[in-house]
Amino acid sequence: MDIVQSAPNTVFFAQDEASLYLQATTMKVWSPRGQTPVIRADPSRKSTHFFGTLNLHNGQDIVMRAEEMNAETSSQHLLQVLDAVPGVPIVMFWDRAPWHRGQPIRDVLAANPRLELVYLPVAAPDLNPQEHIWKAARRAVSHNHSLSRLDDLAERFEQYLNENVFPCSMLDRYGFNALCPMFK
């Protein structure tokens, strides 16, 4: 709240990463009695990764697809977020993943003093609103899918994230909107 009072135009984000595999995950579905649904099984472990950052004010997700999750790609995503909201202070909540540390991260932070990172507690994914976005995207796109190419699945996953708005009550829960009604 100190940040909010000293810089009321601060934008709050929650960031996380997710991996996407061609192997379909399953969930309950309706089907005619006696006709068991068939889900495609893919034995490979090929995957692609997504960096997602949820704007806690407007519910928009900033997404970046990456082949690796490391400090270099994390720093590239931080730069993407900084470009998306130029000139305003940013507070980003993120977890303590190993790729959130290292020289590339320190370089971005040193060059961008308007970005402040707030680390979430260890083993507390439910505190990160971006985790709930991944769950919604998996439910809408990757559960029970029948696609045969990982690129097609990743394209649909990314499209879903870019085309939807994901309201989040985190700021209300902690009294932010009561202090800063301009973001309501």
Percent of residues in beta strands? 15-25%
DSSP summary: helix tally? 7
Distance between the termini: 16 Å
The CATH architecture can be named as: 2-Layer Sandwich
How would you write the strand order of the largest sheet? Answer: 3-2-1-4-5
The name of the CATH superfamily reads Ribonuclease H-like superfamily/Ribonuclease H
Low-confidence stretches: 174-184
Query: How many domain modules?
Result: 1
* Count of strand segments: 5
What is the approximate shape?
A: elongated
User: How much helicity do the residues have?
Assistant: 25-40%
Secondary-structure-based class equals alpha/beta
The radius of gyration over CA amounts to 18 Å
CATH classification, class level: Alpha Beta
* Mean model confidence by pLDDT: 86
Order of helices and strands: HEEEHEHEHHHH
Task: For this entry, give a set of tags.
elongated, five-stranded mixed beta sheet, alpha/beta, Nucleotidyltransferase, domain 5, 5 strands, 184 residues
Show the helix and strand layout.
Blueprint: H1 2-6, E1 11-21, E2 47-55, E3 61-66, H2 71-84, E4 90-94, H3 103-111, E5 115-119, H4 129-142, H5 150-163, H6 170-173, H7 176-179
Parallel strand pairs: 1-4, 4-5
Antiparallel strand pairs: 1-2, 2-3
